Amino acid sequence: MTVNLTKGQAISLQKNDGGSLSAVRMGLGWQAAPRRGLFGSRTREIDLDASAVLFAGKEPVDVVFFRHLVSDDGSVRHTGDNLVGGVGQGGDDEAILVDLQRVPVHIDQVVFTVNSFTGQTFQEVQNAFCRLVDETNGQELARYTLAGGGDYTAQVMAKVHRAGAGWSMTALGVPANGRTFQDLMPAIWPHL
Amino acid sequence: MTAELVRGQNHPLSEVRLEVRISAGTPVVAALTVVGENGRVSGADRVAHPGAPALPGLEVSRQAAAEHRLAVDLAALPETVHRVDVLLALPGGPGAPARFGAVAAPFVAVTGLSGAALADYTITGLDAESAVIALELYRRRDAWKVRAVGQGYAGGLAELLTDQGLAEAHLLARTIEEAVARGVARSVSAPPPQPADPGRSPRPAASDRTAPAAPQTARTAPTAPQPARPEGTAPAATPTQTAPQGAPAIPARPGSPYDGQGADGAAHPTVPQQPLHPDGTAPHPSRPADGSTQPAVPGGPAAPDTGGAAGDETRPAGTTGGIDYNHPRRRTTAPPPPPQAAPPAAPGGPAHPVAGDAAGWSMDERLYNQVWGMFEDLARTVAAYRSAVDFADSRREKELDEALSDPRSRIGGQGDAAREAARARHSELVERAREVLDRDLAQLTAESEVVEPALPPAYAGWDNPVWHGYRVPMEIPMAARLGDLHLPEAPDLRIPMLLRLPLERGLWIDSGGSGGFDDASADGADPRHLAMETAVSLAARLLAVYPAGEFGVHVIDPAGSAARALAPLVDTGVLAGPPARGAAGVEDVLSRLTSRVDLVQMALRGGASDALPPGYDTSEQLLIVNDFPHGFDDRAVTRLRYLADEGPSVGVHLMMVAAREDASGYGPLLDPLWRSLLRLTPVPDDHLADPWVGHAWTYLPPRVPQGSQVLRQVLAQVADGRRDLGR
User: Fold this and answer.
1) DSSP alpha helices (H): ranges in B355-409?
2) Same domain, yes or no: B53 and B87
3) What range does the domain containing B385 cover?
């Protein structure tokens, strides 16, 4: 069952049968909004980037993004940069895989962000979503839609954090501006 | 555009003069029946079969064959003909397969006169049937269409013909059988039957067929010996692309990932820096593009479909009952599963490791990928542990500082309690990190314990018993083991350091005193002798893993100081010539190798690699240089640098056994030379970095066990192999 998350809502990643998730995928998909007016056929490429920041306490320890595709410990992997989006037509254009069992013990939060590298605001993006999938069976656990795209170029999507023995996920949906995850740090701090 | 039909699908025919082509992995009987409007065959005279091969507009062949071309002229058929069925049947007889489930799925295609296929269909999902209605060509509103039927009959032709409404079906079936038996003498030799292994992806041409004596060959008439069908003998192209096991991470530090990025931002800069890697290459497992053929591995996976395999090779995926709507000839390019997959883990416990449990087209490649996988896993596991411990340390420092700076803590036991709490938090985190590390190390150690004994000589240490059964190989392996690597967290977990072959850069055995030599001098061993022994051990490994005569070793030993270490190579006679002495010897060897590099390079650049003199020895060459720069003048140094730069691309490699201090007189002139070589040490030394995290790994040179004669025995075999070759 898919949970459609709204801002600030948290869900536990404990499975119904009591077992906890071992691997999750954070998928990001988008399409460029059609241009209005003349030359509507001219393609407009929008490059969104998904990043994951690994925090220990409140310190960023490692970052997985398009130039560092695997965290040093190997637990978080980015499947690769997509520069134009829309490839999957509703599928994930970029994905970050998190092997929760292998995440080092001191990492207690993983924050997922989306940035518009090419500078377009989310007004020009269609069908953008961020979703969390149980990688072991492909089941979608949660989906957060970048609805009502506003005049900003980045968003702090969600965080996966330790809760008791397992993990849970909180949708953040905090708009921000910036080209890469680093510009988002000030927006992330309050939500750690 | 050919329509690839699935069972039950129909397709309009744009032509009426047709050819029906049938190919099967085994001889089959083909027949055509003419069906009237009532859906019945009115008599035996309406069946074109081997005993009566021609009817108006229809013609079939007189014998059972693996390939048929049936002529069908729909325009020549009377108006009363409503339908023409294409039938296939197994001929029966001793040794022949009795059921379609035991042979490759038959493939039928309807082509026009031009030979262009209009529609084709692979008859999958057959099992006990020995006769099948493959296709029907039928009238629909003054036009003809083709439908894929695939209806099989376990009772054979008799049952099939009965079902078609033929009264004398059994009689006709027997007539056909006799006609086929007469035609057997003219039958072509069929390829060996496919082993029945449903569920396995189809084999392409020339895969590991292990049944050369097919029953059918016995029935081939001696008067008409036919060569085996080409797809049975043509070598399969070896695919070179495989998924990288561990694509190197791009180790940009999170601190300043955008350094040097352009302001335009139109595209991302792709590769910011190349990670240092033990063999100087990306660890992708694609095979060298030297045309080396795939080693056949018993029970190994078949080479993948290269797109050109004949359709008759197709085996249906196990479909019993129901219709298989998967298109039988549309395959994925994924390799077949490895025969040994790790068995499922016991609940709550990690999977039991299995040697060769990695991707690859051959055992050689799978083990190579597995070793690289272990290498990466160990690097990352230790990285996780180290980063957790670092974090715990820094958090403790911070908390202790806070406790100290808090004025309240100076009174009473509050400060002590805070400090105690900080320490407890620290040790608790470190303990948990250690637990995870120990769990992972145990898993990797268990894997190493099963992988090490399974390694072929090229990947095995000198202490591995596999060397005692050493035979000169027929093919160049993917890689050779140049030593072991380990990390301080797990000193007993040794990862084989596998270097891709052919070598892509030269080697430098550092005989200088740059650290790590205290142990050696404690043993009383001379570091220079030790370095030369390491060089000999490495050269012997390279000699042993190349096929006979494909690897030549030259030695420059200007002062003759390495005679003792070189003895195994000299005594067994595996060197290309005696070690060169003095300035003249240096000059001679260098000029010969330089002209070799020039010659091959000229031929390659001119695109005329076939212009080399006939019989030109294209083997790889290794030059061991001891005591550099003793005996070298400026000209010789220039030549050496030229060899280091240009040699590797044309198969001439350098192995320097030298101390950098000795050559300090040349100043920075030689820096590029040293940098271009892969530095190895004769004693354990932590100077190699992995490509993922950049840990400093301790390198252990390959050491022959004390008192073991394995090195000499192996070299003697190499010399024997070369003599057999006549070189």
Assistant:
1) 363-405
2) yes
3) 363-459
Query: Min CA distance, A157 vs chain B (Å)?
Result: 20
Task: Output the six-digit token pair for B91.
Answer: 């001929």
| B318 within some domain | no
B429 and A62 in contact by Cβ < 8 A? Answer: no
pLDDT tens readout for residues B211-236: 333 333 333 333 333 333 333 333 33
Same domain, B552 and B416: no
Q: What is the dihedral of CA B297, B302, B308, B309, to 10 degrees?
A: 110
Q: Could you tell me if B413 and B425 are in contact, meaning their C-beta atoms sit under 8 angstroms apart?
A: no
A68 neighbourhood in chain B, CB within 8 Å: 249-252, 254, 257
> Is residue B381 within 8 angstroms of chain A, CB to CB?
yes
Answer whether B453's CB lies under 8 Å from B694's CB.
no
The angle formed by the CA atoms of residues B510, B513 and B515, to the nearest 5 degrees, is 95
CA distance B205 to B229: 10
Q: What is the pLDDT of residues A72-123, one digit of tens each?
A: 888 999 988 888 776 546 678 889 999 988 899 999 999 988 888 888 787 7
Contact (CB, 8 A) for B83 and B147: no
ipTM of the complex: 0.82
Q: Please enumerate in sequence order all residues whose Cβ is within 8 A of that of B641, keeping only pairs 6 or more positions apart, or say none.
A: B670, B672, B673
Instruction: Out of B383-387, B497-501, B600-604, pick the least confident.
Output: B600-604
Task: Work out the angle at residue A126's Cα, subtended by the Cα atoms of residues A121 and A128, and round it to the nearest 5 degrees.
Answer: 85
The single residue listed with the structure tokens 């993948």 is B304
**Would you call B107 helix, strand, or coil by DSSP?**
strand
Distance CA A146, CA A144 (A): 7
* Cα–Cα distance measured from residue B434 to residue B52, given in angstroms and rounded to the nearest whole number: 83
CATH number of A139's domain: 2.60.60.30
Q: Is residue B353 part of a domain?
A: no
Percent of residues, chain A, with pLDDT higher than 70:
79
Question: Contact A179/B432, CB-based, under 8 Å?
Answer: no
Domain count, chain A: 1
- Which of B19-33, B244-258, B597-611 has the least mean pLDDT? B244-258
Which positions ≥6 away from B253 have C-beta within 8 Å?
A: none
What is the tens place of the pLDDT at every residue in B513-558? Answer: 654 444 444 455 688 889 999 999 999 999 999 998 889 999 999 9
DSSP letter at B232 equals G
With an 8 Å Cβ cutoff, is B282 touching chain A?
no
pTM: 0.60
| Residue A191 lies inside a defined structural domain of this protein | no
d(CA A113, CA A186): 13
Angle (CA) A159-A165-A168 rounded to 5° is: 25
DSSP for B462-484, please give it.
TTSGGGGG----SS--SEEEEEE
Answer for the pair B50, B176: CB distance below 8 angstroms, yes or no.
yes
Give the residue from B609, B625, B604, B620 showing the smallest Cα distance to B673.
Answer: B625
Q: Is A84 on the interface with B (CB under 8 A)?
A: no
**Residues linked to residue A114 through DSSP beta bridges, in sequence order:** A50, A155
Which residue segment(s) compose the domain that A171 sits in? 3-34+43-182
Residue in A45, A49, A72 to test binding to B, most B beta-carbons within 10 Å? A72
Other C-beta atoms within 10 Å of B128: how many?
Answer: 14
Torsion angles phi and psi, residue B132, rounded to 5: -150, 140
Predicted local distance difference test score (pLDDT) of residue B540: 94
Residue A75: inside a domain: yes
